[in-house]
C-alpha cells in the first residue's frame, strides 16, 4: 500500500498540560486525537490545560540547571588556565642508531652538547647516556628484550565453571566470581583486570540492565492457554496477522519520563534531583496494523469531585483529589473512533487484537466491534510479545525520553513527534516479530 500524503495528521494541538497541584478542579474525561490514519482531523481547543504554577517549577528547574552549568564552565576554565601554566614534559624514544651515533661522536672527542645536537638527542638525555657510557664502556641498553607471549592462565574448563556460576545467579559481582574461581582452582592466580577481560572476551558476557518477568508467564497453565489461543487463531482461516489484524493497547506517560542513564564526570556519582511531583499520568491509546498507524489518541484524565484525606509528616491534614484510570467507557469511546477510521478507509472485516484487561473484555466492547463488521481476538495471559504494539510503545517512549522536557516543549508535542518516527516498515517488522513466537507457543516453550 502506497503511503498517503495524509498518512500522519495531527490536531495541531500543543500540549500545555503540566503537572497539577493536589487541589485541582474537576473536569470531564475526554479523548483527544493526536494522529490518525489517512484522515484529516480538525484542530480542537479541548486538548490540554495549563497549570501555571508547575510551569514556574519547570522554569525554576531550568534556572538551577543553567547556574550549575555556569559553575561547571568556570571550574573548567580555571583548570584549563592551571594546565597551561604547567611545564609540559614529553617522553622521547630514540632508535638504537641514534644512540650509537651519539656514542661514536663522543669517542671522536666531540663535546656532549655538540654530539647531542648532531644526533638529535636532547641535552638531559645525552648527559645520562654519556655518564652510562663512561662508567660501563658500552652503549646504553635502553631496549628491554621482549619475551615469548604469555600463555592464557584460564582455559575452557574455567570458562565452563564461570558460566555455571552465572547461570545459577546472574547478579554475582566480578570480585565474587574471581575469588570463587581461585578457591576452586588453587593453581590459578589472576588479577581483576585480566579476569574482567577473560569474562568479556572469552566468555562473551557483559553486564546488562535486567528486566523483571512474572513467574506466571511460564507456568504450565499459562503455556496451555497460550497454545490454545494460537490453535484457535490458526484454525480460523479468515484471520491473518499480516493482512487483517488491528492491534490495540494503551501506555502511560508523565512529564518527567526520561532516560535512566546519564553522562557524568569520572570518579563522581551520577545523581539527579527528583521532582516533588512527577505530575499526573496521562494515557495514550494506540492502534496499529500492517497498514501503519491507525489512530493515536490522548485520554485526558478525569478528576473526581470527592477527595481523599492524607496526613503529612508535620501532622497537617490535606485533601488529595481522587483520579480515575482508564475505564470501559473511555476505551469504548476510543474504540468507536478507531472503528470509524477503519470503515472510512474500507478496512472491513478486521480482527481487533487486544489483551485480556477487564476494560477490553466487557460485553459492550464485543457488541460494538461486531456491530461494525469486525471481530474480537484476545491475547493469552502474560503474552505481551504476541502484540506488536508493545514494540511501537517502546520506540515512542525511546524518542520521548531522549531529552528532558523544559518550558519550551510540551508532552503532547513530544509524543506526536515520536509517533511520526514510526514507519510503515516498522509496523510490518513488529508484526512479523510477533509471528516468530507462534511455533514456540505451540511447543509449550518457555518465553523470556
TrEMBL record:
Tc1-like transposase DDE domain span: 326-411
Lineage: Eukaryota, Fungi, Fungi incertae sedis, Mucoromycota, Mucoromycotina
SUPFAM superfamilies: Homeodomain-like
Cross-referenced Gene3D superfamilies: Ribonuclease H-like superfamily/Ribonuclease H (3.30.420.10)
Name of the featured protein: Tc1-like transposase DDE domain-containing protein
InterPro entries reported for this sequence: Homeodomain-like_sf, RNaseH_sf, Tc1-like_DDE_dom, Transpos_IS630-like
UniProt-listed NCBIfam families: transpos_IS630 (NF033545)
A molecular function GO annotation: nucleic acid binding
